[in-house]
């Protein structure tokens, strides 16, 4: 897994390690998926994320999203 993101307020969200990133492009639509291992103060685990992007007025915007905890 690759270290992808590190952010947080008071260290609440510590580190996300991401793998299996995929982007499927369909004209003015795109679907982005990834698997992330998250370590934080209040929760941790492995999650799957999906984001659906649409190109509107020449800008890409997220129009739908989903996250689920998964077992390894």
Give an account of the 3D structure.
- The protein is mostly beta strands and 72 residues long.
- The protein contains no helices and five strands.
- The chain has strands spanning 2-5, 13-26, 29-40, 44-56, 59-70.
- A five-stranded antiparallel sheet has the order 1-2-3-4-5, with no helix packed on it.
- A hairpin with a 2-residue loop joins strand 2 and strand 3 (29-40).
- It is elongated.
Q: What's the quick description here?
A:
This protein is mainly beta.
Low-confidence stretches: 1-6
Proportion of strand residues = over 45%
* Class of secondary structure makeup: mainly beta
**Helicity, as a percent range:** under 10%
How are helices and strands ordered from N to C? EEEEE
- The end-to-end span amounts to 13 Å
Question: What composes the largest sheet?
Answer: 5 strands, antiparallel
Our count of helices gives 0
Inertia-based shape: elongated
Q: How many β-strand stretches?
A: 5
What average pLDDT do the residues reach?
80
Main sheet: which strands, in order across?
1-2-3-4-5
Backbone CA Rg: 14 Å
Tags for this entry?
mainly beta; elongated; 72 residues; 5-stranded antiparallel beta sheet
Topology summary:
Blueprint: E1 2-5, E2 13-26, E3 29-40, E4 44-56, E5 59-70
Antiparallel strand pairs: 1-2, 2-3, 3-4, 4-5
């Amino acid at each position: 897994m690759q270290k992808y993101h590190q952010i947080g307020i008071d260290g609440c969200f510590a580190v996300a390690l991401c793998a299996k990133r995929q982007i499927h492009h369909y004209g003015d639509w795109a679907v982005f998926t990834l698997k992330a291992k998250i370590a934080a103060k209040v929760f941790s685990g492995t999650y799957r994320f999906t984001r659906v992007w649409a190109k509107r007025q020449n800008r890409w915007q997220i129009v739908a999203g989903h996250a689920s905890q998964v077992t390894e």
